[in-house]
Amino acid sequence: MTLFTRTLESSAHTKRQFVKAQHLPVLAGSLSLCDYLRQMGERSAFIVAEVLDEQDWGPFEHRYASTGRAPYSPRSMMGILLYGIMKGHCSLRALEHLARLDLGCIFVSYGVTPDHASLGRFIYQHQAVLTGTFFKELTLSVLRRSQSGISCLAGDGTVIEAACSYYHLLTQEAISREKSALTAAPATARTEKRIKQLEQSAEVLRRRQENREKKGKDGSQLRINPTEPEAVVQKLKRGKGFSTAYKPSVLVNTRRIIVAQTVDPSSETQVMADLLTQNFNLSGYHPDKLLLDAGYFHDAVIAETQKYQIRLFCSENSHRQTPRKIYPKSLFIYDGEQNSYTCPARHQLSLKSTVAGSEKTRGYRVYGGANCVQCRQKNQCTQAKGGRKIKRYPEDEKRDELRLHMATPESKQILSQRKSIVEPVFSALRGIQGLERFRRKGLSAVKLEFTLHAMAYNLSRAVALILWVMFSLLFGQITGTKEGELDSI
Hints:
Elements: E1 6-10, E2 17-22, H1 24-28, H2 33-39, H3 44-53, H4 58-61, H5 74-86, H6 92-101, H7 103-108, H8 116-125, H9 127-146, E3 152-157, E4 160-161, H10 172-184, H11 189-214, E5 232-235, E6 242-252, E7 258-264, H12 272-283, E8 289-291, H13 299-307, E9 311-313, E10 333-335, E11 340-342, E12 348-355, E13 364-368, H14 378-381, E14 390-392, H15 396-406, H16 409-415, H17 418-431, H18 443-479
Parallel strand pairs: 3-8, 8-9
Antiparallel strand pairs: 1-2, 3-6, 4-6, 5-6, 6-7, 10-11, 11-12, 12-13, 13-14
Domain Transposase InsH N-terminal: 48-123
Region (Disordered): 204-230
InterPro entries: Tnp_DDE_dom, Transposase_InsH_N
């Protein structure tokens, strides 16, 4: 391997010698980039290149015409995209700049230098492959290299701001006014496009208002951005207020490798079936344990895990930042033998009536009859003159089973591992990869963008885990520590 040389030069003012030039073999062209990176201690570029070299690029290559100017290799293009996102460069122009000046990126991409437009066309040309088979195969490579499985998974979701502007939100009334004004104006291609956007947005907003009104809430003030109607106005993380956003969700294993991911406009629970299906298609079997936070204490999630006999560890949200005005239903204990509830004051609520279900509502049973008038805790429980009443739905039986399961010390200890497994994933996506706001509009484009971030994150985990193994082996040789003792250090 070529040794480094340097040039020293004396200052004309102080006669002190300074290093004027270093790594002259690189400047002179006699040292290869591979040797230079090795001497600099750069390892991540080599690991990324090795993982990418393992992939099957046939699905990408089949999408190109057999004639015409030769396109850039899909292997090199993905090297730029994933290595760049790993380093926190998310925009196409930043990736274009990186491919020209970053030595690690030059090594990974074999020196190709596409412009930002070529990178953008590549992403959309291969959207189906990237979000489908390629994510699966890349994740399998990372799992093999990390020697980790999926017997225990942890799930979580977050809120990422959408690309559209918060300041262009419109209510249903504002949409109608703008549409009327455009209809009265002379027809142009631009006005027709805008009218179509407004009509689509009005329909989406109408459905959201209906869903909100079904829950007994006012939906008249809901707003939407016509340029990105799929984005939903919701509360952002880190105290940033409200804005249009999406909710990406992930399942990760104990080595913090993403094995399933997707994006929904506003829900974390509705995508659980899709996440479990992705994981099954990846590994061929379902996890033994699934760790989720209180936001997933939902009937659909419980039903989905029981369907595949997955042990769910998910506690109900009993530690709210803002305490409830009255006791929640979860504090009332149901007794199946007596067919009654026991309230926090140890009073009994017996069955009073049964309400049959309909096409739009579920059937339920009503429990009440406790002596609430003389109860000292009445103000914390109910303001109703007839006393507190509890509605029991058919799915409450499964909820009670999960509450009982989570009451054991063993279950609490297992669930306590969830934070250290899954929450650092979103910290890395935000803090290192710069995923604070999506750059593309529309749910399908957002899913593609998040898939790229997930693949880049998995590559970074492969780098971290492989380097840790190398360090552990070296540390063991130096200190004489056995391999099994390294984890306890």
